[in-house]
Amino acid sequence: MKNMKGIYYVDSNVFLYPVLYQDMPEVDFSKDILSSIEKKDLQAYTSTLTWDEISYVAEKLLGRSDAIEIGRKFMNFPGLRFIIMDEEVMRRSQMMREKYNLKPRDAIHLSSAIGRNIRKIITDNRDFDNIKEIERIGLKDIDSE
What we know:
Blueprint: E1 7-10, H1 12-20, H2 25-38, E2 43-47, H3 49-62, H4 64-75, E3 80-83, H5 87-100, H6 104-115, E4 120-122, E5 135-137
Parallel strand pairs: 1-2, 1-4, 2-3, 4-5
């Protein structure tokens, strides 16, 4: 993966693919992205909500003790910056949800990115397509950036 310019918002699926799956192309793409964040080659942000998503899915699929360990590793991930969910993010989330008919968590991710003037989100979640405030970059598309 080449050095990507700019600031990126990273959705929870980038963190979940390597934890939950093995033989999928998305796993390798995710690992490359995470490696770039860790080496600080990629300037990356995510919401504190991402911890909730990762922990919830991991506990549901892998069990509580694995989920706790995965959550701990996520919170200490080198190079990753967190955007705190506050009242401003919440209010903007409601507006984005109404405007684009988003799920609540997707609205929070979008609002978090917008609040930091981040205009690119790395995710395979197509719910972010056709949203004028942000450009969705799929995991497979990351090398073309």
